[in-house]
Write a sequence for this structure.
């Protein structure tokens, strides 16, 4: 089977899991504005479109950036699966407090278990790692550009989330910052 198959399967499985688990969340008591939400979604849509859309292989964006070998394809596949597994693990630990938008849920709690023990935004980290792995497999400069845009979108969203969490949890969140890295784990 081509290596593309091995990166599409986990993304599809991830999407199905995400949709099913989104049905089991608590009521929202506070959320980001429409403009903030859809501004970041637009950035992410551009990034993922660059990552996956072969129709954008125009000029230098369509050139390869790595040697096409079984080893590089394998590394990309492993990164994709690992990144999506981290995102699913993190989503599982958030449980009913998860939301696709920046929100505070009813009786919201600061989660510090699982990947949240070392990362403040493990879902974004996992998706970034998966995007990098996908770019390695797809091997076009447009995918590299897409990864950069995806990471930018998640950094913007994570900073907004942190402002909301700092306001809600105060000293507890500041303590969490000392022990958990932003997008890279603090060991």
């Amino acid at each position: 089977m081509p290596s593309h198959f091995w990166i599409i399967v986990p993304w599809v499985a991830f999407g199905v899991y995400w949709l099913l688990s989104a049905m089991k969340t608590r009521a929202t008591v506070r959320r980001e504005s429409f403009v903030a939400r859809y501004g970041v979604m637009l950035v992410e849509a551009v990034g993922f479109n660059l990552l996956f859309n072969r129709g954008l292989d125009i000029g230098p964006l369509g050139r390869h950036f790595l040697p096409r070998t079984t080893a590089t394809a394998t590394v990309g596949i492993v990164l994709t699966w690992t990144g999506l597994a981290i995102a699913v693990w993190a989503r599982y630990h958030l449980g009913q407090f998860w939301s696709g938008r920046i929100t505070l849920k009813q009786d919201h709690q600061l989660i510090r278990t699982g990947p949240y023990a070392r990362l403040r935004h493990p879902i974004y980290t996992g998706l970034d790692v998966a995007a990098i792995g996908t770019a390695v497999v797809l091997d076009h400069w447009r995918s590299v550009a897409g990864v950069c845009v995806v990471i930018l979108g998640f950094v913007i969203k994570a900073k907004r989330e942190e402002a909301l969490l700092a306001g809600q949890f105060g000293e507890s969140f500041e303590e969490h910052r000392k022990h958990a890295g932003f997008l890279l784990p603090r060991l």
